[in-house]
Amino acid sequence: MCSRCKRLYPLGSRCEPCASAGAKRREQKRKHTRPSAWARGYNADYRKARAAILAANPVCSICNARPAATADHIVPLSRGGTNEMRNLRPACGPCNFSRGNRAA
């Protein structure tokens, strides 16, 4: 019996139509995954600049209330920004993640 559609099927746990439909779903899901941080531009230069920014100013520059844990791109990488120090500012997680890819 097929474990998905419950039709009688003598071999394996799924009939052929259910098995191929599952393979198609897995392939589509794999195509829509987010690229790695390295592929998106967060490389060694970014990590060095981030460490320097957070060491110089440990408070979020957006809300000035919470400790900074991330370095926010003023002009996002997806909009042509760079990982240079002048394009980064300290930010707490909630402030940085709420901005999305908008320029400051």
Gyration radius, rounded: 23 Å
Question: Which percent bin holds the helix content?
Answer: 25-40%
**Count of runs of 4 or more consecutive helical residues:** 3
**Helix-strand string:** HHEEH
- Under the CATH scheme, the architecture of the domain at 44-99 is Orthogonal Bundle
Sheet/helix structural class: mainly alpha
Look at the structure and give the CATH class of the domain at 44-99.
Answer: Mainly Alpha
How would the global form be characterised?
A: elongated
Strand residues, percent: 5-15%
* Quantity of strands, as a count: 2
Mean pLDDT: 87
User: How would you characterize the largest beta sheet?
Assistant: 2 strands, antiparallel
Cα distance spanning the termini: 58 Å
Uncertain stretches of 5 or more adjacent residues: none
Q: Which fold name is given in CATH as the topology of the domain at 44-99?
A: DNA Binding (I), subunit A
Strand order of the largest sheet: 1-2
